[in-house]
Amino acid sequence: MPSSSESRAAVVAVVTAFVLMTALCVPFLLTDHDVPTAVVLAGRYVPALASLVAILAVLGRGHLVRLWRLRPASPRELFASYGLALAVMVPALVAPALAGLAVGAELKPAGVLLAAVPMIVLGTVLFALSTFGEEVLWRGQLQTALRHLGFWRSSLLVGVIWMVWHLPLHLTYLSVGALTGEQVVASTLGIAAWAPLLAALVERRGTIWPAVLAHAVPLSSLQLLADPSVQGPVPFWTVTVASWVALLVAALVVWDRGSAAVPSTVSQTATSR
């Protein structure tokens, strides 16, 4: 069980993150201006800022590394985390796209897909600079505070909170026409489905880094399709729902394989599922 002060710090961090995210989106929502990419990337550090303020104000800086799950961070660990992230995410993204073929979806040409491989490999490293800002709160501080609930309940609860935190941004996208209502529903619910896998990766390695890197993979199952925006609702929802299922299955596999041999940095405080 977390201490009362750790629970209080987690609540302060989450509330602060919601307030900051809403404040970031309101100007664009009111003016019907699209949210610039730079603002979106900066917004990913809203959770880290909220968590940092909460931990320093309530607990003190001595708790930061532990709650953010930053250790170990050796080059060997980072490389292992990178490999694990790609090994898990690529099949979880490709399988739903292949499932779409059964309902009439078409994949992008092979040449286009092959050309995207370097972008995925290198882009994951680059995007990790921004996804770190989210993961230290959602899979770091908050997941740690809720671990006494067991893996599935805690990871799904974090997923719902993480999903709701995205709502101001997604509603802004809807308001300015950057996303359709269908896309908003799919992308919002997909966040909650993704959370258990990211949590399982953290528990598997005992550190935040595999979740940071998996979150940074610059690809979705729909992006593998030739033109997902015009292939109709059946292919769109088939691939979307299949993506949710694939992510949850991947979480089950990673968690079941890792729970029997959790790294020592985690096992000291681990609870049963």
TrEMBL record:
Keyword Transmembrane helix: yes
GO biological process: proteolysis
An example Gene Ontology molecular-function term: peptidase activity
Keywords, alphabetical: Hydrolase, Membrane, Protease, Transmembrane, Transmembrane helix
InterPro entries: MmRce1-like, Rce1/LyrA-like_dom
Domain CAAX prenyl protease 2/Lysostaphin resistance protein A-like stretches: 120-217
Membrane-spanning intervals of the chain: 35-59, 79-104, 110-129, 150-171, 183-201, 208-226, 232-255
Pfam families, per database record: Rce1-like
Superkingdom of origin organism: Bacteria
The name this protein goes by in its record: Membrane protease YdiL (CAAX protease family)
Species: Promicromonospora iranensis
